[in-house]
Amino acid sequence: MNKTDRGPDTDAALLRALDEAGVGFALFDRDGVSLESSRSFDALAKLPTEAQRDFLHDRVLAAVSRALAGERVDDHCDLGESDASDAHCRRVTAVPMDSGASARVVVWLSDASDAARANAHAKAHAARAARAEAAKDQFLATLSHELRTPLATILGWTQLLKSRSPDSATIDGAMATIDRAARAQLRLIDDILVAARVVAGALRLERRRVDVALAVSRAADAVKATADSKDVRLELALANDCFVDGDSGKLEHVAFHLLGNAIKFSARGGAVRVRVGRDRTSEFATISVSDDGVGIVPELLPRVFDRFTQGETGLTRAHGGLGLGLSLARHLVEAHGGTIDVASDGPGRGTTVLVRMPLAS
Questions:
Q1: Are 283 and 356 in contact (CB under 8 A)?
Q2: Which residues share a beta bridge with 207?
Q3: Could you report the per-residue pLDDT of 115-129, keeping only the tens digit for each?
Q4: 214 with 342, same domain?
Q5: Alpha-carbon distance 119 to 231, whole Å?
Q6: Strands 25-29 and 34-37, sheet pairing
Q7: Is pLDDT at 276 greater than 90 in this prediction?
Q8: Which residues pair with 236 in a beta bridge?
């Protein structure tokens, strides 16, 4: 049908047909006055908040003005969220009809919320992937540094012993240093293996009746040399009636990391207080490790059990480490049916970690 053959009745019939088909459209005159709109258009324009409705109204009128100027308009209007999970986006298409004094504009309105959400999710996923890649690169760099340090110590003392005829005191000192460095490297490798099993869902416990005080005492013996080197006192109060159904080696691993972390972040001459006992209900064994060290800033507290999390980043971190200790401790404690929590009053005010595990029947 030619344009000249179309009359008002034809236009009205077409608009009624589009309305019945559920197409969101509105017809505007050259002054921006709405001449007709479909029920779908009105429904799409009926947004939850007044601010959203006003914003869309302004964008539609702007589209009409641009279309009258000869521009074909195809916009996406992001209208934000009316609550935490209800994002809104509308696609506004405006096309001029006729010209001169009888010029009109038809505006098509459609719901683009699903596409907008998908796009937002894709961007969020890409951002998470980029952060994960950056964390992986940082971890590999840190891992290389942490593994290289004890290895360099071992090689250095080995070369020294090979290059001359040392006296017995030098040999004894060298062997002690090499032994500490080798054990430090072995612990790093053990941490990586445990972390890999946790991520793969392959962590297994060799369960038996475990004396919690004995496991903590063994961990304290393992970190004593480190504590002595920093002049940090270990104050132990270990109840001898706390038994859990668990894996002795894994619980020593937990205690080792909690004590090692407390010593690492303690000032020279500080103290680390370790308590093993029962909670008030006598249903849970508790391990409490407190220090008076650097403390934790409030914004970091919710993330201290995340992998690779520390208060500092980069290879120049004063305290070193892979940032795996507390994450591994959490997974191992939870594998025993327990919980682990951390508290700190802020920077310079120390930290307390509390572990609770069900007592053996």
A1: no
A2: none
A3: 767 777 788 888 888
A4: yes
A5: 55
A6: antiparallel
A7: yes
A8: 274
97 and 147 fall within a common domain: no
Where in the sequence is the domain holding 233, given as residue range(s)? 204-361
Tens-digit pLDDT profile for residues 239-252: 988 999 999 999 99
Pairing state between β 284-291 and 271-278? antiparallel
Answer yes or no: do 46 and 188 share one domain: no
Q: Map tokens 């003392």 to a residue.
A: 157
Helix (H) or strand (E) holding 91: strand 87-97
User: CA–CA separation, 114 vs 112, rounded Å?
Assistant: 6
Q: Is the pLDDT of residue 86 over 90?
A: no
The per-residue DSSP string of 178-203 comes to HHHHHHHHHHHHHHHHHHHHHHHT--
pTM of the model: 0.57
Higher-pLDDT residue of 46, 276:
276
Report helix, strand or coil for 24. coil
Which token pair is 351? 């930290």
Last residue of a domain, one of 111, 139, 156: 111
